[in-house]
């Protein structure tokens, strides 16, 4: 069964990675960059401060802890445990891969930290603003999807790496949101 899933993942990878174009390569490198999304993060910061005022310090602390947890779990609970090589480290696949800029990353790819972190942030923001700013949901989902997709396009992750990474990020987001709600209740009891 595991071998079948691995073959399916490899075929899906080659299909997605094969849909490439030289004009799209720089865009996917940009999408995959951490600093590229700074304007989005600043807009989110504005909405958080506007909505939560002084509580925004607590919100930002929880977001920081959530991203740290998502990132560390993706590495320590998955990459170092499963030790699944990235597709760009598979010698048999290398001639078939469209590897943009020749950058492959670390040895292991399961799960994608980029996908885990992007879906954690997106999930948390969607949960926070779901009743106030409905337009944020589609924007955040598109952000997380693009980041995850870019990792397969660039040749550094299998689709399974980003799917499971996204699922991990969502679980971390839900947990962080519950922590936020508990903290908000305690805060409100003291100051509301």
Low-confidence stretches: none
Question: Any idea of the CATH topology?
Answer: Vanadium-containing Chloroperoxidase, domain 1
Q: What series of H and E elements makes up the topology?
A: HHHHHHH
Task: Assign the CATH class.
Answer: Mainly Alpha
Identify the CATH architecture: Up-down Bundle
Strand content: under 5%
Q: Can you identify the CATH superfamily? A: Phosphatidic acid phosphatase type 2/haloperoxidase
Distance between the termini: 55 Å
Gyration radius over CA: 18 Å
Helical coverage, percent range = over 70%
Characterize the structure shown:
The protein is mainly α and 192 residues long. The chain has one domain: Vanadium-containing Chloroperoxidase, domain 1 (Up-down Bundle). Helix content is 70%, strand content 0%. The chain contains 7 helices and no strands. The longest helix is centred in the last third of the chain and has 33 residues, at 159-191. The radius of gyration is 18 Å and the shape is elongated. The N and C termini lie far apart (55 Å). 34% of the residues are buried. The mean pLDDT is 92.
């Amino acid at each position: 069964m595991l071998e079948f899933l691995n073959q399916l993942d490899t075929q899906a990878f080659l299909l997605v990675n094969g849909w490439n174009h030289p004009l799209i390569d720089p865009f996917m490198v940009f999408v995959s960059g951490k600093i590229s999304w700074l304007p989005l993060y600043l807009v989110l910061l504005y909405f958080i401060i506007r909505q939560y005022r002084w509580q925004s310090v607590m919100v930002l602390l929880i977001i920081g802890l959530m991203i740290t947890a998502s990132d560390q779990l993706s590495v320590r609970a998955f990459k170092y445990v499963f030790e699944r090589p990235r597709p760009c480290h598979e010698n048999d696949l290398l001639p078939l891969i469209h590897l943009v800029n020749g950058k492959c990353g670390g040895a292991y790819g399961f799960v994608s930290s980029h996908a885990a972190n992007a879906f954690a942030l997106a999930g948390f923001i969607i949960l926070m603003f779901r009743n106030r700013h409905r337009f944020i949901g589609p924007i955040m989902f598109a952000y997380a999807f693009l980041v995850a997709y870019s990792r397969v396009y660039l040749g550094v992750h299998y689709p399974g790496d980003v799917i499971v990474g996204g699922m991990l990020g969502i679980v971390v987001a839900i947990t962080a949101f519950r922590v936020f709600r508990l903290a908000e209740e305690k805060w409100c009891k003291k100051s509301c």
